[in-house]
Every structure is written in C-alpha cells, then in structure tokens.
Design goal:
Keywords: Oxidoreductase. The protein is of the alpha+beta class. The chain has three helices and seven strands; from the N terminus they run E-E-H-E-E-E-E-E-H-H. The radius of gyration is 19 Å and the shape is elongated.
Length: 147
C-alpha cells in the first residue's frame, strides 16, 4: 500500500493502520485501512480524480474532506451520489466514478467544457424558454447527448 499521502502518527485517530482492507474503484483494486473513507483511501493511493461534473464533465476530486463535498460524489453498486469523503470503506466494496462517457480518466464528453464560456449560469432558463413554447423543440436536442 502506498502511504506517502497519509498523515503521520498521531494523526488519523479514526483509522486502524493494522487492519488493511481491499476495495475496487473503477475496476482497479486499492488498499485502505479500517476506518478510511473512500476518498481518504483513494488519496492515500494517489487517485485524486473521483468523478466528473454533470454539465461539462470537468474532473472532480476532494476539496474539503468535511463529509459534504459534492466533488467527491461516487456510485456504489446500487446507490448513486454517495459522498466519498463520508462513506467508510469495507472489504471488497465496489466503487465507480460518475458522469463520464467511456472512462473516468479519458471522458469522451470532456470536450463539453470548451462550450462553458458560451453557456453561463442559468443559460438554459434564459435562452430556450422564449418565445413561449420553444422549449418543447429544444428539450429533446439538449437531452439527447451524442455518445
């Protein structure tokens, strides 16, 4: 297990460094210790990319590690939108990133980020609702994302 990203003792009072655990992220096996969250175990293994943004597919990773960081949203087997900085790992836990097309590292939709400068906050709400009724024409095109 790589540990150069772990805080030295006595930090990490909530983890038990004597009990290693294995889990998978994106199909790759990672090592953590009892008490690790998904995010802390991934960081200890030099995996900082955890998901992509919903709209532009920009890379997302931990910012605060305070248990409410939306940048650490991951998917468990049957549960999407799990906070990786809050969810404790268990042996053989299967974790996936979110909001990507292809692979997390090489997202085919990451090119949408280049269009961001042309679509400011609230863009959909201002641009596609006037004149009245035009949203019905635009909605199918916006929701149908090319793969």
């Amino acid at each position: 297990m790589t540990s150069h990203n772990r805080l030295p003792m006595p930090s990490g009072l909530y983890i038990n460094r004597d009990k290693p655990l294995s889990f998978t992220f994106e199909g790759q096996i990672y090592q953590g210790v009892e008490g690790d969250t998904i995010a802390s175990a991934l960081i200890a293994n030099d995996q900082w990319l955890m998901s992509r943004s919903f709209k532009y597919h920009r890379p997302r990773g931990p910012l605060t590690m305070a248990g409410q960081d939306a940048n650490t949203l991951v998917q468990l087997k049957n549960e999407p939108n799990v906070l990786a900085d809050k969810q404790v790992i268990s042996n053989r836990l299967e974790v996936l990133g979110q909001n990507y097309n292809g692979s997390l590292e090489k997202d085919k939709d990451a090119k949408l980020g280049y269009a961001g400068r042309f679509m400011p906050v609230g863009f959909y709400y201002r641009a596609f609702y006037k004149p009245l009724g035009v949203w019905d024409k635009w909605e199918p095109l916006i929701r149908k994302k090319p793969a």
